[in-house]
Amino acid sequence: MTGLANSVLALDELFTALDDPALNSMNLLNEIANRYPQAISLAAGRPCEDSFDVAALDRYLQRFCRYLREELGYAEEQVRRTLFQYGRTKGIVHELIAANLALDEGVRVDPEAIVVTVGCQEAMYLALRALRRDSRDVLLAVAPTYVGLTGAARLVELPVLPVSAGSTGVDLADLAEQLRRARADGLRPRACYLMPDFANPAGITMDLGTRQQLLALAQAENILLLEDNPYGLFPVELDQRLPTLKALDDAHTVIYLGSFAKTALPGARVGYLVADQPVHDRAGGTSLLADQLSKLKSMLTVNTSPISQAIVAGKLLEHGGSLIAATAADRAVYARNLRLMLDGLAARFPDPAAGISFNAPGGSFFVVVTVPFAVDDALLERSAADYGVLWTPMHHFYAAGSAVNSLRLSCSVVTPAQIELGLDRLAALINDRLKEA
Ligand SMILES: Cc1ncc(COP(=O)(O)O)c(C=O)c1O
After folding, report:
1. C-beta of 227 in contact with ligand 1 (< 6 A)
2. DSSP letter (8 states) at residue 349
3. What counts of helices (H) and strands (E) characterise the chain?
4. What is the DSSP string of 92-107?
5. What is the phi/psi pair of residue 171, to 5°?
6. Of ligand 1's atoms, which has the minimum distance to the CA of residue 228?
7. Which helix (H) or strand (E) holds 114?
8. Is 120 in the pocket of ligand 1 (CB under 6 A)?
9. Would you say the CB of residue 392 lies under 6 angstroms from ligand 1?
10. CB 125 within 8 A of CB 119
11. Cβ(121) to ligand 1 under 6 A?
């Protein structure tokens, strides 16, 4: 009896972030989805599953081993050790990632500046953990903001100040104003997090001029930019791609966050960051920020699974080191699905005067639908139970308690027939809800 009583814990005596809605967003949305398995999911931002093939995993692994033997000259014993043993904290596929960034993105980085992480999520955590020195430090982030970033910031107790996206993906005047205000309040803004390509969830892509001005502003204001780029390889038109901020960065202003979740497979849990910022210590020495982050990683996940790294690298090698080549089939699916979703929305909501609008992203998975009423989790629950369709309430991407009149649809892991049926169901919900207003 006493033992039982002693094991009862009070939430308000545990880490404060555990009580924070931001940390529960993903679980809550998954929990609703799990309760309605028959509902069509226009919520999941998961990649298309057409290329999932168990046999490919072994092929990728073998391809990476061949690379170790033939290109790096490893003896069989070294090949075995590389896969089976604990490994280098910063990862074992950094050279291949650096070559890929040069090939696909025109980004030239020292492989030593790359830390391979357990998904992009760990990359965010490491960067934010290192940037948070004390309670004066704050992060700026373009709103709406990816919940994974908000959650990671909570874990390191780094407050996030929202910056308006405006029509360009970042409102530079608002960014300057937020910096000014934060400093006037005695705070120390360290970085601004953003997604220049197909932002999740807003879908905006920054034009070239905005990217250049943003870099200039960040340099003048002495803040870093955290560039997250999980969707950059999924434009509708490949020749419309713009250079990443990192490709334009000649002053180590950008920490680049990469993910293989959408370009290879999320199950491998492999991401990385490029942190080529020089760090000076008191003794007059200089290191790379990546090496400082490596210390944090060594105490968090020790190293990213070499087996996972090998699988991702094998896929990369199988396509000549190019993720553009590796993702060709997926890109075609996403472009087709996005077209179907936008055409489907236009057909179902032809009259802008009715108060329903949606954006038209140039790529990636997500479309934001704006309606003339607040969209909350209760409406999602009703949608799932009574209409059989799931989507994501946009309030999850804003500060807790914000009333938001929009929802995010995803078209990445559904068939054309599911898109049509899902939109029919969504239209029925919206029309019924409008009649109640
Ligand atoms: C904005 C953003 N960043 C990063 C990721 C990927 O993170 P990870 O590599 O940890 O799966 C996602 C995936 O949904 C995302 O939407």
Report:
1. no
2. -
3. 16, 15
4. S-HHHHHHHIIIII--
5. -85, 105
6. 3
7. strand 114-117
8. yes
9. no
10. no
11. yes
| Residue of the CA atom closest to atom 15 of ligand 1 | 230
Write down the pTM of the prediction.
Answer: 0.96
Spacing, Cα 120 to ligand 1 middle (Å):
6
- CA-closest residue to ligand 1 atom 16: 200
Instruction: Give the C-alpha distances (Å, rounded to integers) separating 77 from 61, 118, 308, 310.
Output: 16, 26, 19, 16
- The pLDDT tens digits for 102-158 are 999 999 999 999 999 999 999 999 999 999 999 999 999 999 999 999 999 999 999
How far apart, in whole angstroms, are the C-alpha atoms of residue 417 and residue 42? Answer: 12
CA 356 to chain centre: 27
Which tokens is 420 given? 């049509």
Residue among 352, 337, 357, 351 nearest 406 (CA): 357
For residue 164, the cross-strand partners are 143
Q: Which atom of ligand 1 is nearest to the CA of 45?
A: 14
Closest ligand 1 atom to residue 259 Cα is 9
Residues 6+ apart with CB under 8 A from 422: 40, 41, 42, 389, 409, 414
Any atom of ligand 1 within 6 Å of the Cβ of 361: no
Residue 119 in contact with ligand 1 by CB distance below 6 A: yes
* 261 — pLDDT class (breaks 50, 70, 90): very high
Which amino acid is it at 56?
A: A
Length of the chain counted residue by residue: 437
Q: In testing the pocket of ligand 1, which one of 26, 48, 118, 120 has its CB within 8 Å of the most ligand atoms?
A: 120
**What integer is the mean pLDDT of 187-212?**
97
Which tokens is 254 given?
């950008």
Q: Does the N-terminal peptide bond of residue 201 adopt cis geometry, omega within 30 degrees of 0?
A: yes
